[in-house]
Amino acid sequence: MTKSAVETILERALVGCDLSLEEGAVLLKQTEPEAIAAICATADKLRYSQVGDTVTYIINRNINFTNICEQHCSFCAFRRDDGDNGAYWLDSAQILEKATDAVQRGATEICMQGGLNPQAQINGKSLPYYLKLVETIKQEFPQIHLHAFSPQEVQFIARLDGLKYADVIIALRDAGVGSMPGTAAEVLDDEVRRILCPEKIDTATWLEIVSTAHKLGLNTTSTMLSGHIETHEQQIGHLEKLRSLQKTAINQGYPARITEFILLPFVGQEAPKPLRRRVGRDQPVLADALLLGAVARIFLGNWIPNHQQSWVKLGLAGATEALNWGCNDIGGTLMEEHITTMAGALGGTCMEVESLQTAIASLGRPFQQRDTLYQKVKSEEIGVRS
Predict the structure, then answer these.
(1) 143, 65, 64: which is closest to 106 by C-alpha?
(2) Cα 339–223–229 angle (5° rounding)?
(3) If you ran DSSP here, which 8-state letter would residue 47 be given?
(4) pTM of whole model > 0.85?
């Protein structure tokens, strides 16, 4: 399509219209520098009008409690079988030690996810094991926000224990889980999923579990694993499903919704060889990630205003550049991160608060610490220097 068509689409976006699937795909297919610059400028304007100039960050810690997993996703370098070299499974004392360290370093959030380990049971049941993980942390640190257990983990527990998804979500919520990571989404297209993660939940199940969480008062995030085998149409289809999910939560008056969209560009350096060969590169293409992030802002921003790119996957310089392309959040300190790092990411596993603040300030933008649900955090409240 001609440049004037791009201009028309961007003008519609700037007056608050929701773009169609076709319009979104047109933007993603642009290769001319002038058109890409216009998309970037539009995303930046929309970011400013939707959330302002302040860039947020969170002090958080990842705890990946086990890498033993029954599934074999084609992109995953993290998983191990029980007994494999490098397989691990943290016990309560190790989890508590990591949580204690996080709190001492000013964390407001612990993000906890792990492999699907069929042995992770108490008295032959899966749910009590996960509840014990929650209680281990919440009994010691009731103030910490636990952002834990993806839709895939909810389905895993429900399947093993013969429970409904709602039963699992209610039990986790009541035990102290504060929100659900919108991971395991990869690309919400079953053709892609059949190749990428054939054993994972299908698109409809992911959407059902996230929507059920919203109904039951559990906020979620949303993600997309991009830059592997998916087409532009499949990328936009993914964004449209997220937008519909959020519209449903808002229009139905559910007590919770999607708090943010996080783009996760594919890192293939240590991925299993068949997918690595098919994708043909080890690290993300920054230009592709920036354009997709900008289009995501244009496509989702009316409904999901908070956008983030992963410094683990893109490096801090790449994530900082994304703040010019529609992002308003630079992510968290993480303190440790195994899943992407084991895939060969170059971004590192821990980021100091000062590094995030310096990166934001380099753009002349103000910074603000936030909590998981995007409320401002005053540094003196948690005893750390801002």
Answers:
(1) 143
(2) 80
(3) H
(4) yes
